[in-house]
Design brief:
The complex is a heterodimer of chains A (495) and B (157). By secondary structure, chain A is an alpha/beta fold. Among the domains of chain A are: 256 residues, Alpha-Beta Barrel (TIM Barrel); 68 residues, no CATH class. In chain A, the strands form two sheets. In chain A, strands 5, 6, 7, 8, 9, 10, 11, 12, 13, 14, 15, 16 and 17 form a 13-stranded mixed beta sheet that branches. In chain A, strands 1-2-3-4 form a four-stranded antiparallel beta sheet. In chain A, helix 2 links the parallel strand 5 and strand 6. In chain A, helix 2 runs parallel beside helix 3 and helix 3 packs parallel to helix 5. The longest helix of chain A is centred in the first third of the chain and has 14 residues. Chain A starts with a strand and ends in a 22-residue tail after the last helix. The C terminus of chain A is likely disordered. With 157 residues, chain B is an alpha+beta fold. Chain B has two domains: 74 residues; 78 residues, Ubiquitin-like (UB roll). Chain B is built from three helices and ten strands; from the N terminus they run E-H-H-E-E-E-E-E-E-E-E-E-H. In chain B, a hairpin with a 5-residue loop joins strand 2 and strand 3. The relative contact order of chain B is 0.16. The chains are: A alpha/beta (495), B alpha+beta (157). At the A-B interface, helix 12 and helix 13 of A face strand 8, strand 9 and helix 3 of B. Bound molecules: iron/sulfur cluster and zinc ion (2 copies). One zinc ion binds next to loops of chain A. The site of one zinc ion has 8 residues of chain B, from loops.
């Protein structure tokens, strides 16, 4: 047993803050912690220490804090969320839940889907939620409207409009897509309200999967949503909820499907099913990031390898993994690789993530403006030396009747306007034909690390206008009592 | 060696993070070795300087008094691996690149060369001396390469 570090954690029974250690044994990484009252708990957090450490090596971010904290430091982390001044990380995505209602009744579900319409926040409350984001987080601000199923509300278009009025830069909608598929008028109004992207629940490419989860055939509905968004010019991210014995065998097919739908589909965000087990052993039933990546590698015939997934710009190296890949004639050309090590970036993590969230939708890379489309002129460069050279040796790429250079032997990029396979092509492809494949690991009370949560950049907005780091918002003890979600009182407190 | 630099060129150097000394060095070494491209009238030269992570070019002209005038400087991070296809292929009608390899006194021609950066390799147009095989990338192509470099860097970040 080799200790890596100490960790601040919580007791899975009483949610008191307790100390623990992170250690390696037989190539696996564990957290062991002890509560004076409830004893000692050991949890496996990675089955491959090499991958675990490689991700850490490759992770390097600068951070910025929120513009203005909304709560005080009082009882200590994690009891002061709101965001409190101790929090080390600005918001990159704020989640605004506008209803708890849902029309699917899924086996796997995160949200509490039991309440009725009278519990939905009213327009004033929602406005205050948007305003909380504006006052707390730095620009630009990104909000995901979520639920429940937000499209159960008829006033969703007005809510989107209001977000824009309040000044939220990017508004995306998290939906199962059913209403969008059948209600064109509703979709038109969402579009007119200024929605920037659709986060579409998409668990598989066959109805078997949907039947298992919801008892309904949904694949055609999903396809129709993508179709509608394609026509409307709205970007879509497919969000498969992943679980063993459910759709883990289909992740390769999902990626393949997505690659056929670029650029409308911008990415696939795999969300391993989150559940709070009653024991660490039970938790091992969930799908870890590494397991998911291994499945992706196998199911894409090694085109997308585990090593192509680098730590997402998230709180820590272990919160998420991302692969960016170009799509070239049905094949993948991954652009990311852990072996390339950390990229030193000047901009901080939230800002970068926001840019990438927004950049995905706009279909270009915001940092690169202006990216003029590569033209003949740029490629046939003699002409570009005009300032330096006295004469403009005219570039004759488009009229080269005598050019008998065989494309096979020398794929001359300059032999015609449409280059093939060259760097200009590469640029064009990366603007239009790329896919972001990502995944995120939520923390549970067993794997909980203070360092991860206090750096969390995804914040859930509560109806009283506070921002709660995502993992804390959904954290419950082993008996299912939440720390924040649906809570008026905070448990685990000695007050 | 005297190198004249106009204010305009000077601000271009600054904006792109070039140091005058390194550009001077590149020109000096090209002048002493003869490794440079020259245009048809011998009025414009391109010199290349290779360092670990950057290939830098200086575009300059000789002046009557024996001094030189720097016209432009540019660079790419990509490595040039060599000719696409591995070797220099003769083609029936070679377009003249308009440049001559000074050292070999040989007309340089357009050929695709493989360039790689961050694990991605692609061809792009180069100016190649058929005799010594020296490869130069022009300023216009460098603009494209720069965009590709930023994409790769951005996407990795
Ligand atoms: S998670 Fe962040 S906001 Fe919440 S108490 Fe800890 S430091 Fe404060
Ligand atoms: Zn306890
Ligand atoms: Zn030569």
């Amino acid at each position: 047993m080799k200790q890596i570090s100490t960790v601040g954690s919580l007791c899975p029974e009483c949610l008191r803050t307790i100390e623990g250690i992170k250690f390696v044994e037989d190539g696996k990484v564990y957290i062991k912690k002890e509560c004076a009252e409830h004893g000692s708990f050991t949890t496996l957090i990675s089955k491959d220490v090499n991958h675990y450490l490689k991700m850490e090596e490759c992770f390097d971010v600068d951070r910025a804090r929120v513009k203005a904290p909304l709560t005080d430091v009082n009882k200590g982390c994690p009891y002061d969320c709101g965001i409190c001044p101790s929090h080390k990380q600005d918001t990159c995505l704020a989640i605004v839940e506008i209803t708890d209602r849902c029309d699917l009744g899924c086996t796997y579900c995160f949200a509490d889907s039991t309440s009725d319409a009278s519990n939905d926040p009213d327009m004033d409350t929602i406005r205050r939620m948007f305003e909380a984001v504006k006052s707390c987080s730095n620009e630009p601000t990104c909000v995901q409207i979520s639920g429940g199923e937000p499209t159960l509300r008829n006033d969703l278009p007005e809510i989107i409009k209001m977000a824009k009025e309040v000044g939220i830069s990017h508004v995306e909608l998290n939906t199962n897509g059913r209403r969008i598929a059948r209600d064109q008028d509703y979709f038109d109004r969402i579009k007119a309200a200024g929605i920037d992207a659709i986060y579409l629940g998409f668990d598989g490419v066959s109805d078997d999967v949907y039947l298992q989860r919801t008892g309904k055939k949904l694949f055609d509905i999903k396809a129709e949503v993508i179709n509608k968004c394609d026509k409307a010019g709205i970007g879509v991210v497919l969000v498969p909820l992943v679980a063993k014995n459910y759709n883990l065998h289909e992740v390769g097919k999902i990626i393949e499907f997505a690659s056929q739908k670029v650029p409308t589909v911008r990415g696939v965000h795999f969300q391993p099913v989150f559940y709070s087990g009653r024991s660490p052993a039970e938790m091992e039933g969930r799908t870890t990031i590494l397991e998911l990546l291994e499945e992706i590698e196998t199911q894409t015939d090694g085109q997308l390898k585990v090593e192509n997934f680098t730590p997402s710009l998230m709180p820590t190296a272990h919160c998420g993994a991302t692969c960016l890949t170009l799509i070239d004639n049905g094949n993948f050309i991954p652009l990311t690789n852990v072996s390339m090590g950390a990229v030193r970036s000047k901009s901080d993590v939230a800002n970068k993530t926001k840019k990438s969230i927004m950049g995905r939708w706009k279909g270009s890379t915001p940092d690169l403006q202006p990216v003029s489309k590569p033209s003949c002129h740029d490629l046939l460069s003699k002409a570009s030396l005009v300032n330096a050279s006295k004469s403009d040796v005219s570039s004759s790429c488009c009229e080269k009747p005598n050019n008998t250079i065989s494309i096979e032997t020398i794929p001359m990029e300059s032999s015609c306007c449409r280059s093939s396979g060259g760097w200009a092509d590469f640029i064009e492809m990366s603007m239009n034909k790329y896919l972001t494949i990502s995944t995120m690991a939520f923390q549970d009370v067993w794997s909980y690390e203070k360092e991860r949560v206090e750096n969390c950049c995804i914040h859930v907005v509560t109806q009283d206008g506070k921002l709660i780091p995502f993992c804390n918002y959904n954290l419950s003890n082993c008996n299912g009592d939440f720390l924040y979600r649906n809570k008026n009182k905070v448990i685990g407190m000695d007050d | 060696m005297t190198i004249n630099i106009s204010d305009e060129t000077n601000s271009l150097l600054k904006d792109n993070g070039f140091r005058i000394e390194e550009i001077q060095e590149i020109i000096e070494s090209a002048e002493s070795s003869g490794n440079k491209l020259k245009d048809a009238d011998g009025e414009v030269f391109i010199a290349r300087g290779d360092s670990d992570n950057l290939t830098t070019y200086a575009v300059y002209s000789p002046l009557a008094n024996g001094a030189f005038e720097l016209k432009s400087a540019y660079a790419h991070k990509m490595k040039v691996a060599g000719l696409t296809g591995g070797s220099f292929g003769e083609v029936e009608y070679d377009d003249e690149s308009g440049w001559t390899c000074h050292k070999c006194n040989e007309e340089a021609v357009d050929r695709n060369v493989d360039m790689f950066y961050l694990d991605v390799s692609r061809p792009g147009p180069g100016i190649v001396c058929p005799k010594c095989g020296d490869i130069y990338i022009t300023q216009g192509v460098t603009k494209t390469l720069k965009t590709a470099e930023s994409i790769l860097e951005e996407k990795r970040a």
